[in-house]
Amino acid sequence: MIHVLLASTLPLAVFFAAWWRRGRRTSVRALIALPLACLVSGTWAVTPDLPRLWGDLEWYVDLHHRSYCNVWWGHCMIDARDDIDSSMAFPVLFVLVTIAVFAVGWRELARRE
């Protein structure tokens, strides 16, 4: 969860900055582009964990011990710190950010009707 949230920080910051600059208005295109940008960035962030999906634990462990593992948005640096990786603050932040994006989208779509 933390990897996806941190990876989504830049797309979310750009979205909310543009939303604020436009007088708290956004376009339907931005409402579609935001989750796509978060999906791409979040997938990049969890790339070292993907081999576990198809049961390749050897490759999974190998990726986590590569010198360049942090190129995936600091993935291994986060995994090395259990207090960060297991913190309950990040699921709460994830839910709050999701609610904020849905609220902006709901408000914008309601205004357009």
Overview of the molecule:
With 113 residues, the chain is mainly alpha-helical. It is built from 7 helices and no strands. Helix 2 (9-21) runs antiparallel to helix 3 (28-45).
Topology:
Layout: H1 2-7, H2 9-21, H3 28-45, H4 57-64, H5 75-80, H6 82-85, H7 89-112
Helix pairs in contact: 2-3
Number of strands: 0
- Please give the share of residues in helix: 55-70%
Distance between the termini: 35 Å
Q: Please, how many helices?
A: 7
Order of helices and strands: HHHHHHH
Category by helix and strand content: mainly alpha
Low-confidence stretches: none
- Fraction in beta strands: under 5%
- The radius of gyration computed from the alpha-carbon positions, rounded to a whole number of angstroms, is 17 Å
Mean pLDDT: 92
Largest sheet: none
Question: What sort of overall outline do the alpha carbons produce when their principal axes are compared?
Answer: elongated
Brief rundown of the structure:
By secondary structure, the chain is mainly alpha-helical. It is 70% helix and 0% strand.
Labels describing this entry:
single chain, 113 residues, mainly alpha, elongated
